[in-house]
Design goal:
By secondary structure, the chain is mainly beta. About 10% of the residues lie in helices and about 30% in strands. Strands 10-11-13-14-17-15-16 form a 7-stranded mixed β-sheet. The longest helix has 14 residues. The protein is globular and about 55 Å long. The chain starts with a helix and ends with a strand. Bound molecules: zinc ion.
């Protein structure tokens, strides 16, 4: 009954082959030798894992997910829910080097967003000049003495499975967020389903707030370009008014989509946001007016809704 894991291997999946720096797992139809699987197996591809859906003669559906770069269990798993909840399951108390991310859509289908490697840093860094300010919102919300950084270049730049999708571009050298803000960020993007997100950065590889901003510690606070009506991902400056151009002004702002994104970021835990007045002192949802935020949204004071699960 159904398609068993063994069969996946039997029909030629030594899973998952890491190709092109891990962007896609590959599956070769010609390797199928199964008499019954041809029409009944759906597959989709993404970094680090392959998922199959098989329907047997009785119409029963069986899903098989093969995950992990080395078929190992990730050290920690994150389950992201549309209501903003994030569950985590610690599989390995000794080390935390790989995190697995899943997203549940409104039909309770699970989407495997892949395995991402983590970089462990001390949560409290007291050495100057990169001395971490003593603020509780820079601590790991799960607890413990460490922060586990994620290089945003290791997050899939896009995901697309039916209505569940996102596409992300990078416009930064401050590449590092952390394992929990990664879950929240993925949840906010997938709840929106937009394909013109532009990430403007967070921390450096040591968790330090590099560059002009001084609050981007431990990958907690994130910056984004504003979303445009033309979905081009080009610059937008809220203090300008033109509808087109690079940058365009507030008339080029997609207010509906931007406010939806703000709502989702808020839902996933960023309780404070810095933006800029536009169109006669209007403000985007959850934001306050703040100098130098005419060209990007800054989200901060991260308080996610986390739950530890054991199975
Ligand atoms: Zn910022």
């Amino acid at each position: 009954m159904g398609l068993k894991r063994d069969k996946c291997i039997e029909i030629g999946i030594n899973c998952p082959p890491k190709m092109d720096g891990g962007i896609k797992a590959q599956y070769d139809n010609n390797q199928r030798n199964s008499e019954d699987a041809e029409e009944k197996v759906e597959k989709w591809q993404y970094k680090g894992a392959v998922r199959f859906k098989a329907i047997d003669e009785d119409g029963d559906t069986t899903e098989t997910i093969i995950t992990g770069v080395d078929k190992e269990l990730a050290d920690i798993e994150y389950y992201i829910y549309q209501n903003g909840n994030i569950e985590y399951k610690i599989n390995n108390k000794e080390k935390r080097e790989k995190a697995q991310y899943y997203y549940y859509d409104s039909s309770n289908n699970i989407h495997d967003l892949g395995v991402i490697k983590l970089k462990k840093i001390s949560q409290s860094r007291i050495t100057k000049p990169k001395q971490l300010p003593k603020r509780s919102f820079y601590n790991n919300p799960i607890g413990g003495e460490y922060i586990y950084l994620v290089d945003v270049r290791d997050i899939n730049s896009s995901y697309n499975n039916g209505d569940i999708k996102y596409k992300l571009s990078l416009n930064t050298t401050r590449y590092f967020i952390n394992d929990i803000t990664t879950a929240a960020f993925l949840g906010a993007m997938l709840n929106c389903g937009y394909e013109d997100f532009v990430f403007n950065g967070a921390s450096d590889e040591t968790g330090y707030s590099a560059g002009p901003s001084n609050s981007h510690w431990n990958g907690m606070h994130l910056d984004f370009r504003y979303l445009r009506k033309d979905k081009s991902g080009k610059n937008l400056h809220l203090n300008l008014s033109s509808e087109t151009g690079d940058p365009c002004g507030w008339k080029g702002l997609d207010e509906v989509r931007q406010n939806k994104f703000n709502d989702e970021l808020y839902l996933f835990g960023w309780t404070s946001m810095l933006s800029y007045y536009y169109n006669n002192k209007k403000l985007l949802n959850h934001t306050i007016n703040y100098a130098n935020h005419n060209h990007h949204l800054h989200v901060q004071i991260f308080k996610p809704k986390l739950k530890n699960i054991t199975k």
